[in-house]
Specification:
Layout lengths: L5 H11 L10 E2 L7 E6 L8 E8 L15 E2 L12 H7 L5 E16 L7 E2 L2 E8 L3 H11 L7 E6 L6 E5 L32 H10 L18 E2 L57
Parallel strand pairs: 1-7
Antiparallel strand pairs: 2-5, 2-8, 3-4, 3-5, 5-7, 6-10, 8-9
Length: 290
């Protein structure tokens, strides 16, 4: 039988409870066309929003060797700069078949309770990161002006459309602004780093290697899908049509409740490799403009 000391035991426990591991409990928004969810945004001020410039694969393509291939890769240029300092910026400018142009994104931390359109039930809230174009921050800025600290309120989020035509409606409806629907508990985000969750960070050498081989060397991504909800909360209001608001008719036909997959952007089993920490690009978000 394997033996260990008390000190070794404490080290294992401390590592297991480290806030840096909170990303393993945080997933991505999974909302189908026409479906609704209740959300509590982890946004008290605009400073709580995280921005990054990334290269996503061309729509319908994927980065070979990079998990599922759809996770973006961090751009190496400063925000607003598109020089050859970033091999992917150069490749995109030259019309690369897979590499998309650099795009500014905002990453929004929030708690989500998904609604079953057939039963009117809401799932237990789970922590997710919602990726949107950076310009969406203007919508949140308007909400902050209207409602103050957004962590104090519950909003209804509805997806309208699919693919490139997808848009979202984020509405404040007093009927749903109840703490028992989505409790104000953002502890899952303690120690959270979006750069270890929502996009890959690669060195210039690794990007150049991709351009030569059309594939990344596979490695483990830190982000892991959240645990499936262990309970379901039955909302006291199972008939949203009672609420006299314009968008309440946008309810999709009865469908199965959203399933939490192994990862919103699933990661293939990586090949054994020596763990390395690639150099991270410097971001100057202070000069970011919308």
């Amino acid at each position: 039988m394997s033996q260990f000391s008390y000190e070794q035991y404490q080290q294992v426990v401390t590592k297991a409870q480290s806030p840096a591991r909170s990303a393993s409990r945080i997933g991505y928004l999974k909302l189908a066309d026409g479906n609704e969810a209740l959300v509590r945004l982890n946004v008290s001020t605009l400073a709580d929003l995280k921005f990054a410039t990334v290269h996503a694969p061309v729509f319908g393509k994927k980065f070979e060797g990079l998990g599922s291939g759809f996770t973006p890769v961090s751009c190496l240029n400063e925000v607003g700069s598109y020089s050859d300092n970033c091999p992917f910026c150069r490749a995109a400018a030259e019309g690369h078949d897979t590499i998309g142009k650099a795009a500014k994104k905002v990453y929004i931390q929030m708690l989500v309770a998904y609604k079953d359109a057939a039963t009117g039930q809401f799932s237990a809230p789970i922590p997710v990161v919602w990726e949107r174009p950076a310009g969406y921050s203007k919508e949140l800025a308007a909400k902050l002006r209207d409602y103050g600290d957004l962590t104090d309120h519950v909003f209804k989020l509805t997806r309208i459309g699919s693919g490139k035509d997808t848009r979202y409606s984020l509405d404040y409806i007093p009927l749903y602004d109840k703490p028992e629907l989505v409790a104000k508990d953002f502890s899952a985000f303690d120690g959270f780093e979006v750069s270890k969750h929502s996009f890959w960070i690669k060195t210039a050498a690794e990007l150049e290697e991709y351009l030569k081989t059309n594939s990344f060397a596979e490695e483990e991504q830190d982000a892991v899908a959240p645990a499936a909800p262990t309970s379901t909360y039955t909302a006291p209001y199972t008939a949203p049509k009672q609420v006299n608001v314009p968008d309440m008719d946008l309810v999709a036909p009865a469908v199965e409740a959203p399933k939490v997959e192994s990862a919103a952007r699933p990661v293939e089993e990586p090949k054994p490799a020596e763990a390395t920490e690639p150099a991270r690009p410097v971001r100057n978000f202070n000069s970011f403009s919308f």
